[in-house]
Write a structure and sequence with these properties.
Number of strands: 7
CATH superfamily: START domain
Distance between the termini: 40 Å
CATH class: Alpha Beta
Strand order of the largest sheet: 1-7-6-5-4-3-2
Strand content: 35-45%
Shape: globular
Structural class: alpha+beta
Number of domains: 1
Organism: Epidermidibacterium keratini
Oligomer: single chain
Number of helices: 4
Order of helices and strands: EHHEEEEEEHH
Region (Disordered): 97-116
CATH architecture: 2-Layer Sandwich
CATH topology: Alpha-D-Glucose-1,6-Bisphosphate, Chain A, domain 4
Radius of gyration: 15 Å
Protein name: SRPBCC family protein
Length: 154
């Protein structure tokens, strides 16, 4: 049985220097361009720890807002934000590829404190249960990374 709390991770190698990849990955306002789930992102002020976000998410006919706060912002290395409604932390971590010719990007979703009861009920009722929901998230994460890679390497 799939546990909704287990981390979900997707990784890709991009044939570009970290600076170039960082400019794309760290621009959270542009997430609707990359993520199949994010329709709109609003952030007031610069992207840095403590910055607050509002996301409008979608899946088919379902549309829902979430609020989040940037929890980590280490230039050229790491950016993360925690969603208030379900306690999930989403992150992008960059490191050089093994041969040093590009950048490895890891997109991760973690729920170290679990998720809210409301989130669990919504996943069960509207998203087909934990296993289907996790599969959907993992697929979306891989799509996000692939779109970024295609754009950066163009």
């Amino acid at each position: 049985m799939t546990n909704l709390y287990d981390p979900i991770e997707a990784t890709i190698e991009i044939a570009a220097p970290q600076d170039q990849v960082w400019r794309v990955v760290s621009n959270l306002r542009a997430m609707p361009q990359w993520s199949p789930q994010v329709a709109k992102t609003f952030i007031r002020g610069p992207i840095r720890p403590g910055a607050k976000m509002i996301n409008i998410n979608r899946e088919g006919p379902k549309i829902w807002p979430t609020t989040a706060k940037v929890t980590r912002f280490e230039p050229r290395r790491d950016v993360a934000f925690r969603v208030k409604e379900n306690w999930a932390e989403w992150s992008f971590t960059l490191e050089p590829t093994a041969d040093g010719s590009g950048t490895k990007v890891t997109h991760r979703r973690e729920t170290p404190k679990g998720t809210t009861k409301l989130s669990q009920r919504l996943v069960d009722r509207f998203f087909g249960g934990a296993e289907k929901f996790r599969g959907h998230l993992e697929s979306g994460m891989n799509q996000t990374l692939q779109k970024m890679k295609t754009s950066i390497e163009r």
